Amino acid sequence: MSTTNLIVISPDDNVGVVIGGAAVGDDLVATDGRTIKAATEIPGNHKVALVDIAQGDRVVKYGEVIGVATEDIKIGAWIHTHNLTFEEETT
Amino acid sequence: MKDGSTFQGYLRDDSRVGVRNHVLVLSSVACANGVVNAIGRAVPEAKVIVHPEGCGRGPEDVGVTWRTLSGLGKNPNVAAVLVVGLGCEFITAPGLAQDIAGVNKPVEHLVIQDEGGSKKTTKKGIDIVKKLVKHAKSIQPTACGLDSLTLGLECGGSDALSGVTANPLVGRLSEWLVEQGGTTMLSETTEMIGAEHVLARRAATTELGDRIVELVRKQRKLTEDILGDLAHMVISPGNIEGGLTNIAEKSLGCIIKAGTSPLQEIVEYGAPASKKGFVFMDTPGSDVFSLTGMAAGGAQIMIFTTGRGTPVGFPIVPVIKVSSNSDIYRKMEDDIDINAGRLLEGDSMDDLSRELVDFFTRVADGEETKAEANLQDAVSIFTASPPF
Q1: What is the pTM for the complete model shown?
Q2: In the predicted model, what is the mean pLDDT of residues B70-92?
Q3: What CATH code is carried by the domain that includes residue B36?
Q4: Inter-chain residue contact A3 with B197, CB threshold 8 Å
Q5: Is the domain of B177 the same as that of B259?
Q6: Is the same domain home to B208 and B132?
Q7: How confident is the model at residue B1 (pLDDT cuts 50, 70, 90)?
Q8: Residue of A nearest to B198 (CA)
């Protein structure tokens, strides 16, 4: 069995955290049992899309919205400041 | 998970329960610290709390310090207290002693100017504390419900994994404790910036939700006013390089320590909670200030997650240390109790949660944490204004 290198915090999340980083094609073995392939290079401890995320979709971590995708993001792709914006919610 | 079980605790007269049975020697003012430390050296079974406050501050700070010192004396982990003051300070030893005695535990006091100086006060103090230790030893622990426990939550020396491994693990413990009828106390208002809407949504009432938003915004403004160009440190370039995209994501990684239970109450720094379940205390993000506030608020156990590693503990409250990664656990094994980095070495969140719950109940039963074994007794009381 491969070592777990992808942490999924909440079952509602559409992003996970890649431990130690990944190159294109690397297997990402998640704490919830799923395995996906890295679609881009991903720096250590950064976020990866767990599903295809469309431009304008909410990005969810900790079961909460952490921002909106500024472009289509494929499953296995790196998510960070280049494709995720954050608009502060007012209550 | 252990459900509905009990632990061996010390039932106090105010019906709160201690997980420890300490005798506390407490300074009412910084000027008494030397005597308090001398008494502590002579009677090492007693715990000592010294601090730089008690005089020379504005009325608001004196009020917060009073509430904090009184809360530390009243903490149910403390069986009996000796308060030592100088005699001319704002926070007087007899006044503080009387306040603490309101929870009906043995409280004595000494005033250095009345006793005739350090040596005489120390000698008398040693006799009193030996007597209080004898009294504490006569108190037998009994089976107590987990619903009597308040767990204080803290993170410090965080790294990119703190919000990914250690804090979600602590969130499991918080949810478990709330299910048992206990209380989990989140703190560090600075670390809530950007996630206040999430806490507001989880608040049990609209009024509570509005209050948390107001508190966090006030803290944000204070951070910007005082830190100026450094305010961005709250989400630093290092955080962004580490994989956090924005402040909301960073703050969510902090509040996950409280799990996802509804927010029942917001309390001021050092004040006790009147509700059970998930409560929030308004404290600074700085670790020792925050731990001191929660201990004064009655937390009997505190849990502290760290990525960079920290030895910090608290004199009268066991502090459980959880590392976010295995490297720091191996480097600082003497200081860290539980390694959440094992999530990346094949251990499941469920297994680690069970282990943490077991350790937590053993600590409630009396097992020493690493910080206790190392006598890591740090205390800092929050003040808003300069001394004068």
Answers
A1: 0.95
A2: 98
A3: 3.40.50
A4: no
A5: yes
A6: no
A7: very low
A8: A64
Q: What is the rounded average pLDDT of the residues B253-275?
A: 97
Residues 6+ apart with CB under 8 A from B15: none
Q: What percent of chain B has pLDDT over 90?
A: 86
Provide the angle, in degrees to the nearest 10, between the axes of the packed helices B349-365 and B167-179: 60
Rounded-to-integer distance, Cα B345 and Cα B380, Å: 37
- For the cut 60, the answer to whether the pLDDT of residue B387 exceeds it is yes
- pLDDT per position as a tens digit, B52-78: 999 999 999 999 999 999 999 999 999
B159 — pLDDT class (breaks 50, 70, 90): confident
Clarify whether residues B258 and B126 are in a common domain: no
Enclosing domain of residue A59 = 6-85
In B, which residues are within 8 Å of A17 by CB distance? 164, 243
Q: Are residues B224 and B204 in the same domain?
A: yes
Region B35-42: what's the mean pLDDT?
Answer: 98
Q: How many domains does chain B contain in total? A: 2
The range of the structural domain enclosing residue B66 comes to 22-137
Q: Compute the nearest-CA separation of A58 from chain B (Å).
A: 13
Full 3-state SS string of B270-282? CCCCCCCEEEEEC
Count how many domains chain A has. 1
A5 inside 8 A of chain B by CB: yes
Distance CA B111, CA B292 (A): 24
Instruction: Identify whether residues B115 and B207 lie together within a single domain.
Output: no
Domain membership of residue A79 (yes or no) is: yes
Q: Using a CB-CB distance cutoff of 8 angstroms, which residues of chain A are in contact with residue B247?
A: 86
Q: Model confidence over A13-70: pLDDT tens digits?
A: 999 999 989 999 999 999 988 999 999 999 999 999 999 999 999 999 999 999 999 9
Say if residue B44 is in the same domain as residue B178. Answer: no
Sole residue written with tokens 């392939």: A37
Please give the pLDDT value at position B97: 98
* Cβ–Cβ below 8 Å for A3 and B201: no
Residue A1 maps to a domain? no
* Residue of chain A whose Cα is closest to the Cα of B257: A62
Residue B2, in any domain of the structure: no
CA atoms within 13 A on the CB side of B378: 15
Residue B330's Cβ-side half-sphere holds a number of Cα atoms within 13 Å equal to 5
**Can you list the alpha helix ranges (DSSP code H) found in B190-246?**
196-202, 206-227, 237-241
Do the Cβ atoms of B197 and A5 come within 8 Å? no
Residue A34 lies in a domain: yes
**A82: nearest CA in chain B?**
B245
The identity of residue A41, as a single letter, is E
**Chain A residues closer than 8 Å to B249 by CB:** 61, 66-67, 86
For range B305-324, the mean pLDDT: 96
